[in-house]
Design a protein that fits this description.
- The complex is a heterodimer of chains A (about 160) and B (about 260).
- With about 160 residues, chain A is an alpha/beta fold.
- In chain A, about 20% of the residues lie in helices and about 25% in strands.
- Chain A has helices at about 10-15, 60-75, 95-105, 115-120; strands at about 35-40, 45-50, 80-85, 105-110, 135-140, 145-150, 155-160.
- Chain A is elongated and about 55 Å long.
- Chain B has about 260 residues and is mainly α.
- Chain B has a single domain, classed as Up-down Bundle (Ferritin).
- Chain B has helices at about 10-35, 45-70, 80-85, 105-125, 130-160, 165-180, 190-195, 200-220, 240-255.
- The chains are: A alpha/beta (about 160), B mainly alpha (about 260).
- The interface between A and B is medium-sized, with 23 and 29 residues.
Amino acid sequence: MAMIPGRLTQDEVWEVLGQIQDPEIPVISLVEMGIIRQVDLDGEHATITIAPTFSGCPALQVIQQDIREILQRAGFNSVVVRLSYSPAWTTEWITEEGREKLKAFGIAPPVHHSGLIDLALVLPAICPYCGSTNTIVKNEFGATQCRSISFCNQCQQPFEQFKPI
Amino acid sequence: MPTPQFFDAALTESLALFFLALGDDELLLGHRDSEWCGHAPILEEDIAFANLALDEIGHATYWYELYAGLVNENPEQIADHLVFERPWKAWRNIQIVELPRGDWAFSVLRQYLFDSAEVIRLEALARSSYVPLAGVAGKIRKEELYHLRHSRAWIQRLGLGTQESQSRLQNALQSLWPYTNQMWQSVPGEDRLMEAGLLPGSQALQTIWLEQTSAFLRECALTIPSTPPLILNRTQHTTHLKTLIAEMHSVFKLDPQAQW
C-alpha cells in the first residue's frame, strides 16, 4: 500500500490501524481492543498514543512494531508510538464488535463492571457457548496474562474468559 | 516526564529512591516466582506463577520508568540498565523478596504477604498528588487484586487442609513473619514526601495491614509468631541476593551488546 505522504486523513489512519490484529488473539483488532487512544498527524509525522493492557505483556513490543510498520508503509516517514498509563486501559474499552469476535473465537468477553473492578472479580463469566452464568473459575491464570480458565456447569464445557480489568 | 517545579532536589531524590525500591521489590519477587516455572506442584500453578512473574516484572518496569523520569535517564533503557548492569550491593529491595523460593508453602505465603501489603499501599498511592504515580498505582492495583485472590485461596487451602500442609505453612510463617516489618520501613526523606501529599504514611498503612493480615491468617488456623520484627534498611542484603544477581546477569554478560 504505497501512498503519498501526508495525504491520509485522521479517519483513514484509524482505518489503517484497524487492520492490525492483536498479536495474542488474532481475531480482534487493536482498535477494537481499545488499545489505540489517539492519533496525531503532522505532515509526514504520526504520533500514536496507545494504552498498554496487562503489565509486562510481551505483545506490547509487537504492537508497537506493527503500528510503526503499517504506517510507514502507508507513507509516514516518522512514526512515534507513545505509551499512556493513565487513565489505565480497561476491558470496558473493548468495542461491542470486539466482544462479539472474542465470543465467536471461544473466549468469553470480560464482564462489564463500569470501572468497579472489585465487583468484576465476583461476577461469574458468561459461557461463550451456551450463555449461562452458572460458571466457575478453574484457574485465575491462563495461556496469556489476559485470560483465565472457567468451566460451565450448564453445558459442561471448559472455556477461557478475557479477564476484566 | 518532567520533574514538577515544586520539587526540590532532596524531595526528588527521596521520591526517586522510593520508586527504585518498589521496582527492585517487584523485579526480584517476579524473578523468584519465575523459578517455579517447570517445577510447580501442579500444571495450573506452573502457569499461574509464570503469569505472576510476568506481571511483577511488568510492574517493576513502571516503577523504573518513574524513577528514570526523576533522575533524567532514558525511560526506555533504564530497566535493562538497572536490572542487568547493577552490582548486587546497589539493589534497594527488601530482604523478603530475595530469600530462596523454599517449599510451596513458603512461596505462596511470601506471595500473599507481599500482595496483601501491595494492594493496601497501591490504594493509597493511587491518591497521590503526583499524577504519574497515581496513574501507575491505579493500573497495577487492578492486576494485584487477582494476585491477592489467588494467594489468599492458597493460604486457606494449605492452612485448613491437612496436618502436613498446615504445619508447613506455619513453619513458613515462622520464617517469613519477622521480615514483613521491612515492607513498611520508610525510605529516607519519606516524612517530607508525606507532608507534600506525594506519599501516604507507611506506619498508618502498616497498622491496617497488620490487623487485616493477622485476622485472615488466624482464620486459616495459623498462629502469628511472637518473634521480634527484623529491623533492616534497604542497603542490607543477604548473600542470597548475590547468588540471584549472579545468575540473572550470567546470560547478559556473555554479550552485553547483543541485539535480538
